């Protein structure tokens, strides 16, 4: 089974304590044994075993990792969904070394990859997106502008999926990217 990845990976010279974005995805059609998703992950590989979490930000005092949702782009009305105790994510206690905003697609047993996003390549305003990519820095301040020298863009199979990264910060979308693709049988 082949897994295809499209991601924006971001590393800073300081420890990272969270990440956020506004995501827009459609209803992709995944068959049995296929999956597709869009996610934000916070990763630390400086210790063994390494830890990562697929959403959240860390509380400065408790070191717990919170999962919030917000319906406003300025994040002024967050709803706390819950948290993971810092004790179960021990190597993330002092922050992470990178964050990723990504889309994934996993082929079924037949090797056919599912559609990702809306099933179309990201060519226009109708594409799936993640915008206002933000990270929490070592001072626990939410930053809304990525240093382009710290960004790594990865697309495993441009035959089936793609990602368009907009490196320049804009008031309408912040740092953002559009992603998706039709999938298919020859994605490797």
TrEMBL record:
<dbReference type="InterPro" id="IPR004314">
    <property type="entry name" value="Neprosin"/>
</dbReference>
<feature type="domain" description="Neprosin PEP catalytic">
    <location>
        <begin position="1"/>
        <end position="188"/>
    </location>
</feature>
<dbReference type="InterPro" id="IPR053168">
    <property type="entry name" value="Glutamic_endopeptidase"/>
</dbReference>
<dbReference type="Pfam" id="PF03080">
    <property type="entry name" value="Neprosin"/>
</dbReference>
<protein>
    <recommendedName>
        <fullName>Neprosin PEP catalytic domain-containing protein</fullName>
    </recommendedName>
</protein>
């Amino acid at each position: 089974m082949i897994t295809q990845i499209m991601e924006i990976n971001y590393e800073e010279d300081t420890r990272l304590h969270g990440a956020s974005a506004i995501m827009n995805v459609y209803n992709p059609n995944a068959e049995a044994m296929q999956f597709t998703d869009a996610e934000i992950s916070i990763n630390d590989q400086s210790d063994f075993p390494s830890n990562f979490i697929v959403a959240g930000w860390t509380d400065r005092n408790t070191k717990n990792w919170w999962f919030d949702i917000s319906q406003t782009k300025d994040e002024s009305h967050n709803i706390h969904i819950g948290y993971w105790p810092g004790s179960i994510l021990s190597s993330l206690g002092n922050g992470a070394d990178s964050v990723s905003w990504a889309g994934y697609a996993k082929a079924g047993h037949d090797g056919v990859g599912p559609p990702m996003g809306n099933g179309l390549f990201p060519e226009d305003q109708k594409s799936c997106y993640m915008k206002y990519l933000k990270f929490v820095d070592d001072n626990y301040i939410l930053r809304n502008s990525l240093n382009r020298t710290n960004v790594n863009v990865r697309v495993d199979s441009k035959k089936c999926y793609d990602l368009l990264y907009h490196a320049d910060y804009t008031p309408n979308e912040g740092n953002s990217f559009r992603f998706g693709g039709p999938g298919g049988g020859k994605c490797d």
